[in-house]
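For reference, the entry.
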Amino acid sequence: MPIATINPATGETVQTFTAASDEEVEAAIARAYARFTSYRHTSFAQRAQWANATADLLEAEADQTAALITLEMGKTLASAKAEALKCAKGFRYYAENAEAMLADEPADPGKVGASEAYGRYQPLGVVLAVMPWNFPLWQAVRFAAPALMAGNVGILKHASNVPQCALYLADVMARGGFPDDCFQTLLVGSSAVERILRDPRVAAATLTGSEPAGQSVGAIAGDEIKPTVLELGGSDPFIVMPSADLDAAVTTAVTARVQNCGQSCIAAKRFIAHTDIYDQFVDTFVAGMQALRVGDPTDPDTDVGPLATESGRDEVEKQVEDAAAAGAVIRCGGQRPDRPGWFYPPTVITDISKDMALYTDEVFGPVASVYRVRDIDEAIEIANATTFGLSSNAWTRDATEQRRFIDGIEAGQVFINGMTVSYPELPFGGVKRSGYGRELSAQGIREFCNLKTVWVA
């Protein structure tokens, strides 16, 4: 994929960029490593000052930044602005809490024959961040804010279709006061990742992206014995039981499926409805999806913009066509509109069988699959019938059912009577082939720290 800004709403190439040369990559790694040797000794108070100043800029520039995000990956202006403001919140959260999260953890010295004994968190060094295009600012900031507050430095290899967002991130942190080379953007293709990760000056890596990308980075890091955090795909279930507030569940289901034009790892994708309310759920859900307005993402009346890439739109289209050819029923959508750009309509599919790829595969677009179940056991069985385990949603007012879903669903997260959202205050990550490690919360900032045991006689 060329490194370029291509407007998904029109297919027009707006600007192209030249990939960094091998010499430029080498120089960037050298600068990052040199910066870490001094930056690691800065105080939490100083880092917090820089993080809060960066948050100030993100808030002040939210409208301009939103326009850039929309131009490069096609989400609506409203959701793009919300993303920029969420990044500011992330910086402020770690500015306020990092020192307490990384405070020494005391042990009982008498029990280990010491005068002092404790664990101390120390930064690892240069961390490579390989990030996707779907949340071009937030995905990177939820790594950068805790990593920089912990005393690490970062090198960002962003997706090739959001180069201007990638450059903005490095620029806004520099203008916020972070010292030169604390956070660098490298405009390179995926083929450069292995070289960077194998460099002995790079201590660790984090990746948010596809399963194949995660396999590649995980294998290289394993070979080099370097820690990684991987946040990969998801095919999240959204379960609705008879005791649920059905109106609230349907309204949330529509939002959960089409958020970010349906291009979110934590978007609900498989909707599992109890047979007692299945028909009502499907009818109202289809009506809600049909009511959405697809169009220009810069128009405030637009609900769903284009998909970010032409190849992504084509893949969604193929998944729907294959399911229909195998007997699935398309309740709404399912036809690419005849217009420029990479648009695809909100689509609902039912009558999906286990032999269809759609039963287990992730669909990265505004396509919902709906399943009928007899009871809670079958609901949990279908929820877990995927190799992914990122997040999940369950709607029920029955306390016993809530506990069953919390305990029984195989996922890194479960949201009861609500929609999955990433919060700085809560750990974020998955199980199974959705990856490992955690971002956000105290767990996230500790992922790229060495917990050093200290024992003093």
About this structure: Residues 212 and 232 are 9 Å apart (CA to CA). The first helix runs from residue 22 to 39.
